[in-house]
Write a structure and sequence with these properties.
alpha/beta, seven-stranded mixed beta sheet, binds pyridoxal-5'-phosphate, Aspartate Aminotransferase, domain 2
C-alpha cells in the first residue's frame, strides 16, 4: 500500500493550523472529483469562500450574482436567518439519529407540511437522501405495488425521451436513452420503454398525435408496465424545455385507461420554480407517486422525499415482502428535516408567488431581444427559469469563466444558456444576469461551440 499520501497529509494536518476557508487548489486538482469530470484533465473549478443573499464571494474576493441557485435548489437565497436558526437549534438538540424504530419532531413536522402542500391524495412520505434516491424509491414503490396487486409482471417503466431523473442505476435507466448514460452501462441499465419527447409547447393546446406513440406503447405493453415516469411541464436537464400542460393531463388519462401508475418527478420543478407550487397544478392532475428534492431544504443540505397515495402504500404493504424495501442510514436526518421545514414555512408565507411572477416578467422583457442574435434559436421563460437556446453545444468551461468576468455565476450546458435565480433576487441583480446572458449569447462564435463535458446542468 502506498502510504506516502497518508503520511504527507497527516504531516500537513499535524504541522499546520487548519484554515478551513483556504482552498488548496492543487490538492483539489490532484485528488477531488467534481461532477462529470476526469481526473486526467484538470476541471475548471472556481473557489467559493462564502455566500449571502443572491451573491457568492469567490476565493479571489470577487462577488458574483448567482444565476443558478446552486443547481436550482437555493430558492430563498443564501444565509436566510430562518433556515440557519432552525438548523443551528437542531444541531445542538439532535443532529442525527437513526430512523429505524425511532421518530422525531423535525421529520413529523416536515411530513405534515409536505402532506398539506401537495395534492390531497398524497398522504404517505418516504424521506430520501437525494433526488436520484427519491426516484429509486418511487420506482421500487411502483414495482412493489403491482406485486401487492397480484400483477407481478408489471415491472417495466415507460417514459418520454429527453428526460433526466438522476445518476443512480434505476434513475439512469429512465433518462434519455441517447444523451444519457445507457450505452456506457448497458450491462447494468434495465431496458425500459421510451416514446418521443413531447412536441406540444407550454401555453398551447396538445398537438394532434403528440401522445400517439406513447399510447401505442401502452396498448401493446400495459400488462408489463408498472408506471410512467415524467418530469411535469419542464424537462430540465434535458434542455429546459417547457411542454403543454395538456400533454401532462393526457398522460394522466392514459395511465388511468391502461392501469399504469403515474410517477411525477418534481425534483427540478417543485416548490414554485416554474410559477406554480408544483408543476402538476398546471394540468390539474394528481400523481400516484411524487418525487421532491433540490429546493426542499432551500438548498441548505441534501434531502429529498417520495410521496405516494394510500392506494400505492396499501399495494406495497400487500406485496410478498409485506414492507417497503428501502431504509438508508441517514433517512429522515433531523438536521435536514429542520432545514426543510424552515424552507417550507418560508414558502407557506406565499411571498414566492409574487417574486417568481416578477422574475418571470422581467426575464421575458429583458431576454426577448436575444432571439435576433445570430446563433440563438429560441428564447423562453417560465416562472423563474430563463433560457437562451443556441444553435450548437457551447463550451461550458470557457463560458463559466467569461460569466465570472461579467460578475455573474452562470453555468450553461449542452446548447442552453439559462438562469434559475433565487426567488429573492433584486431587480438590479436580475438585470445584471440577463445582460450577461445576452452579452455572451451575442458574442458566441461557432468555434466556441465545443462539447467539453457531459453535464446534468
Ligand atoms: N430528477 C430531476 C428532474 C432532476 O433535475 C435531478 C437533478 O438535476 C434529479 C432527479 C437528480 O437529483 P440529484 O442530483 O439530487 O440526485
Amino acid at each position: 500500500m502506498n502510504n506516502s499520501f497518508y503520511q504527507q497529509a497527516s504531516q500537513t494536518i499535524d504541522s499546520q493550523a487548519i484554515d478551513s476557508q483556504a482552498i488548496d487548489f492543487e490538492f483539489d486538482k490532484q485528488h477531488i472529483w467534481h461532477p462529470y469530470t476526469s481526473m486526467s484533465q484538470a476541471a475548471s473549478v472556481t473557489g467559493v469562500h462564502s455566500a449571502d443573499g443572491c451573491e457568492l464571494t469567490l476565493s479571489s474576493g470577487q462577488k458574483v450574482i448567482d444565476g443558478t441557485s446552486s443547481w436550482w435548489a437555493c430558492i430563498h437565497g443564501y444565509n436566510r436567518p430562518e433556515i440557519i436558526e432552525a438548523m443551528q437549534q437542531q444541531l445542538t438538540t439532535l443532529s442525527h439519529v437513526m430512523f429505524g424504530g425511532i421518530t422525531h419532531a423535525p421529520a413529523v413536522n416536515l411530513c405534515k407540511q409536505l402532506v398539506a402542500m401537495t395534492s390531497p391524495n398524497l398522504t404517505k412520505v418516504f424521506l430520501a437522501d437525494s433526488g436520484s434516491i427519491a426516484v429509486e424509491v418511487a420506482i421500487k414503490m411502483a414495482m412493489q405495488y403491482w406485486q401487492g396487486k397480484q400483477l407481478p409482471q408489471k415491472q417495466r417503466l415507460l417514459t418520454v425521451k429527453r428526460g433526466y431523473h438522476g445518476d443512480t442505476f434505476a434513475a439512469m435507466s429512465v433518462c434519455d436513452p441517447d444523451n444519457g448514460m445507457h450505452t456506457m452501462f448497458s450491462a447494468a441499465v434495465t431496458e425500459h420503454l421510451f416514446s418521443p419527447a413531447p412536441l406540444s409547447v407550454f401555453g398551447e393546446a396538445l398537438k394532434q398525435g403528440d401522445t400517439d406513440a406513447l399510447e401505442a406503447i401502452l396498448a401493446e405493453h400495459h400488462q408489463d408496465i408498472a408506471a410512467i415516469i415524467i418530469e411535469p411541464v419542464m424537462q430540465a436537464a434535458g434542455g429546459m424545455h417547457f411542454y403543454s400542460a395538456e400533454y401532462l393531463s393526457a398522460i394522466r388519462a392514459l395511465c388511468n385507461q391502461y392501469n399504469v401508475l403515474l410517477i411525477l418527478d418534481e425534483i427540478a420543478t417543485g416548490f414554485g420554480r416554474i410559477g406554480k407550487l408544483f408543476a402538476y397544478e398546471y394540468a390539474n392532475i394528481e400523481a400516484d407517486i411524487l418525487c421532491l428534492g433540490k429546493a426542499l431544504t432551500g438548498g441548505y443540505i441534501s434531502l429529498a422525499a417520495t410521496l405516494c397515495s394510500d392506494e400505492v402504500a396499501k399495494g406495497v404493504s400487500d406485496s410478498p415482502a409485506g414492507v417497503f424495501m428501502h431504509g438508508p442510514t441517514f433517512m429522515g436526518n433531523p438536521l435536514a428535516c429542520a432545514a426543510a421545514s424552515a424552507s417550507m414555512s418560508i414558502l407557506q408565507t406565499g411571498a414566492w408567488q409574487q417574486q417568481v411572477s416578477d422574475v418571470e416578467l422581467q426575464m421575458k422583457t429583458e431576454l426577448a431581444e436575444a432571439i435576433d442574435y445570430q446563433h440563438v434559436v429560441d428564447v423562453r421563460v417560465l416562472g423563474a427559469v430563463g433560457v437562451i437556446e443556441m444553435d450548437s453545444v457551447v463550451n461550458t468551461a470557457k463560458l463559466q469563466q467569461d460569466f465570472i468576468e461579467l460578475g455573474v455565476w452562470i453555468r450553461p450546458f449542452a446548447n442552453v444558456i439559462y438562469i434559475t435565480p433565487p426567488y429573492t433576487i433584486t431587480k438590479e441583480q436580475l438585470t445584471t444576469l440577463t445582460q450577461a446572458m445576452k452579452t455572451i449569447a451575442a458574442n458566441i462564435t461557432q468555434e466556441q461551440a465545443a462539447a467539453d463535458s457531459f453535464s446534468n446542468g
